Amino acid sequence: MDAIWEALLRLFGEYGASKTGLTLIDYGAEKRLAIIRVAHTEVEKIRAALASITKIATEPAAIHVLTVSGTLKALRKKIK
Amino acid sequence: MKRIFADTHLKPNLADMEHAKRMIMKAAELGYSLIAVPLPLRTPESYAAQIQSICKEASIDFASRLDLKPKTAGELTHLLRKFRRKFEIIAVVCEAKAVARQAAKDRRVDLLNFPATDFRRRFFDEAEAELASKSLASMEIDIKPLLTLEGQERIRLLSTLRRETAIAKHFHVPIVFSSGAADELTMRKPLEMAALTTLFDMDKASAIDAISKNPIAIVKRNRGKLSPEFIAPGIRIIRRGKDCP
Question: Is 0.80 topped by the overall pTM?
Fold first, then answer.
């Protein structure tokens, strides 16, 4: 989450980041899969912030959005 | 109808075909249906054949691309005369104003590319856009510098891209958004690329067109022109010899 917050702050500042309502819902280290909640109006902002991440801590990395959904139930169904 | 996405600027190390294969497989996994790889001027056919076979394996379409870096306008026209009919996409890296102007008005040029970090050599202004709008050239934006640059340099790049995309929109110059990736970690999904354009205030519909409709149109147009049936725009052979009534 640190990497996401850092990217968000770097691109949109504290004001922009405050509007996203970014929260971590679930993270599975084995599958390297995270579920995050954001305000639906800010999805593109978060997508841009995630795309701009090139490293996590000091390790080179990339984060991809698998899917976006309005409810957690539908999201879990989609990623099964 | 489902959108087809294209990344017209993948830059794998062609000396290492395993690396190229990994990048092409990744492009297919990320949802691209067409990729273009810049080929070297010398022996492009051998590389093209190898990449073509990898793309076939990955069920992805491949378009051959040539990046020209001429120093003068004369050199550009000479290179275009020599190579236009051998490649499906011709991009010109404009490092001089005269080259940029010639490339913008030449109908054989598909993509205008400008150095990302050398802001004094980004010649995409109103005059350039007006010339490009009368020809077939599109402006190409690579996302790699957006990912790799930091701090003031990225701020300056975003500001330049904001100005240039507004000019392109005003003069109806198509924009092509490509990855410019030389490794898998700088490759992004089509919608992620589109999301990055919000950083320089491009609307979502234009951003999606820049990674699907615009590059696909270039490849389709050039494939039509390069086919043996092509005579002139709007005229092509549909029957030969005994097929003719």
Answer: yes
Cα–Cα distance for residue pair B93/B102, rounded to 1 Å: 12
Q: What is the mean pLDDT of chain B?
A: 89
User: Looking at the predicted structure, is the pLDDT value of residue A36 above 70?
Assistant: yes
B85 token code pair: 């009919």
- Give the residue from A46, A64, A65, A66 with the most B CB atoms within 10 Å of its CB, the best one to mutate: A64
Taking the CA of residue A73 and the nearest CA in chain B, the distance in Å comes to 23
Most A-contacting residue of B191, B197, B206 (CB-CB within 10 A), to test interface: B191
Cβ contact (<8 Å) for A52 and B193? no
